[in-house]
Design goal:
By secondary structure, the protein is an alpha+beta fold. The protein has four domains: 1-27, no CATH class; 31-169 and 338-365, no CATH class; 172-314, no CATH class; 383-563, no CATH class. 44% of the residues lie in helices and 17% in strands. The chain contains 15 helices and 17 strands. β11 and β12 (464-472) form a beta hairpin. It is flat.
């Protein structure tokens, strides 16, 4: 006999009369646990739109940087593993409201970062945007898991939650500290192998030129890091799925990384052999790039086979079949608790509020892009005090996207005391970057500043605070000053510490989760001298005088007015 309980019943059992045995009641109304879990997963995925700026940044990272492309698989793998862990505990829905608090803090923090500069400076070549995109991915995933699955699911899915931290698998500091040294090491090994075969090469350490017009360049992507990282992630995820013991798990990951790097060295040596053979078979010379791809693919297949052989031996079942999940009660007919719908509705409301600004920005941007010419220049005044517009140009990313409008202003009456190179001042306005500090760009390229601090410079309106940095690239000494303008208000600040500090601007707190008519516009000013032998302090003071002279008659609102609308 079936006994129907009210909708509020949740995993209740009763003793059959006189039988002394336990019998599960059948629940016939409302959402079951599995249905509720499916809806929760779909809503959580849709909620990524409330942190769209992070998603767009990561997508660009994965599609334009081959070294970091493996990060694009991390959210998919984490999502699948979380669902797998959830199924292992019977789609339990003992969610915690703390998860909603964590999600709300994450969404608000991302919107603050979109409208203000928050940048932690660790050294002259290492700066971190706050919060890092990896932390956003981790916090969002952890909040969604806690909100719907509760502490038990959080514990069961701790590995895939932490795995989301690696959506950016290779931080910029890694490039400087490990990637470039490995590039030189790989080139040295390939060069030594060529010398061992008696093949003379040119003196350039990163170029192996077999003839003046036939050779190969050991680029950063040729140092084995991509293969090593891919192999390491395979071992890391396989060790979790196949339940390796901790010491075997650690050894498997380290061994996989070394295996990827070792096979890359083999690839370089085989490629040297290819080039030596191609010296005698000219038909191969024009196909060296394809030959590199084929050699690399074959060796990576061999390395992957070796890795999976090791995984097969370390697996408790000695097979590649996924271990069976822990047995759990049948949840197909059990109802979700009454608290599920309020939690679901609360997250949906948070997502709706957090998505308003992105939806409006995308709508306005589509209209702007439909009417704007891709090669149109910025809107700069012809005269700024004693300066005249000399030339205009646009700066584009390698993908073709516009990043900066630029204008070069020259003084009408150059002073005889001005530094060599003249008193020209370049002004850059970014219509697309939003809250962005150029110090991050220099940091990503490994360019070290000699001085960095806040400076307050007079403008035609009110004194404005700039974050200023001074550089010497060997050809010029130049001073850059950046600020962030929201409407007519501008300001950007930096701590005065030499090697550690914070760069920030003040957001408009009234429009954090809605699209203000005036969005933040980065303004970059640059002035330089070609006299690289001049003492840095003297050069910096002279360049700062150029900026003060130019900005004394400049109204920054005139530069940003045309680009404030998204």
């Amino acid at each position: 006999m079936k006994i129907e309980l009210p909708r509020s019943s949740y995993r209740e059992t009763a003793l059959a009369s006189g039988s002394g045995t336990s019998r599960s009641f059948t629940l016939s109304k409302g959402l079951t646990l599995s249905q509720s879990a499916a809806l929760s997963a779909l809503l959580s995925v849709a909620g990524v739109f409330s942190i769209l700026s992070t998603a767009i940044y990561l997508w660009g990272l994965w599609t334009t940087d081959p070294l970091k492309s493996i990060g694009g698989l991390i959210p998919i793998v984490s999502f699948v593993l979380i669902l797998r862990a959830w199924r292992s505990i019977g789609w339990e829905m003992d969610g915690a409201w703390w998860g909603l608090l964590l999600l709300a803090v994450t969404v608000v923090t991302v919107h603050i970062r979109d409208r203000a500069i928050l940048e932690l400076v660790l050294s002259s070549s290492w700066a971190i945007f706050v919060p890092p995109h990896s932390l956003v991915a981790f916090a969002y995933t952890a909040g969604a898991v806690l909100l719907f699955g509760g502490v038990r699911l959080f514990r069961a899915a701790l590995f895939p939650i932490v795995l989301t931290w690696f959506v950016n698998p290779v931080p910029n500091a890694f490039n400087l500290l490990i990637d470039l040294p490995l590039q030189h090491a790989s080139a040295k090994i390939a060069r030594s192998f060529a010398h061992l075969l008696g093949q003379p090469l040119t003196s350039d350490q990163l170029r192996l030129m077999f003839t003046p017009d036939f050779g190969m360049f050991i680029a950063p992507g040729c140092n084995g890091i991509r293969g090593a990282i891919t192999m390491g992630f395979i071992a890391l995820i396989a060790g979790y799925v196949y339940r390796f013991r901790l010491r075997f798990h650690v050894l498997a990951v380290l061994g996989a990384i070394l295996l990827g790097y070792l096979f890359n060295l083999i690839r370089l040596c085989v490629l040297v052999l290819y080039y030596i053979v191609a010296l005698h078979i000219h038909w191969l010379q024009s196909r060296a790039e394809m030959g590199d791809y084929i050699i690399g693919a074959c060796l990576f297949l061999i390395a992957t086979t070796v890795l999976f052989t090791v995984i097969l031996r370390l697996s408790p079942t000695h097979s590649l079949r996924f271990p069976a999940l822990a047995p759990h009660a049948d949840s197909g007919s059990l109802l979700a608790p009454k608290s599920f719908l309020p939690r679901f509705a609360a997250l949906a409301l948070l997502i709706a509020i957090g998505s308003v600004s992105y939806a409006r920005a995308l709508s306005d941007r589509s209209v702007t892009q439909a009417t704007a010419h891709p090669d149109a220049l910025g809107h700069f005044p012809q005269h700024i005090g004693g300066y005249t517009l000399a030339r205009e140009w646009n700066e584009y990313l390698v993908t073709g996207a516009l990043i900066f409008y630029w204008a070069d202003y020259a003084p009408d009456h150059p002073s005889p005391n001005q530094l060599e190179g003249g008193g020209r001042v370049s002004v850059g306005i970014s219509p697309v970057l939003g809250a962005h500090d150029t110090l991050l760009c220099h940091s990503a390229r490994g360019e070290d500043w000699l001085w960095h601090d806040s400076v307050t410079l007079p403008t035609a309106g009110v004194p404005t605070s700039f974050s200023a940095s001074f550089y010497n690239d060997g050809a010029t000494q130049y001073l850059e000053a950046t600020t962030l303008c929201t409407g007519p208000t501008c300001g950007q600040y930096a701590s005065a510490r030499q090697h550690f500090g914070f760069v920030y601007s003040r957001p408009d707190t009234h429009t954090l989760l809605t699209q203000s008519p005036d969005r933040p516009i980065p303004v970059l000013l640059r002035t330089e001298t070609t006299d690289t032998a001049m003492a840095p302090d003297r050069a910096r003071d002279g360049l700062a005088a150029n900026l003060r002279d130019f900005l004394g008659a400049a109204d920054l609102a005139t530069f940003t007015r045309a680009d404030r609308q998204p």
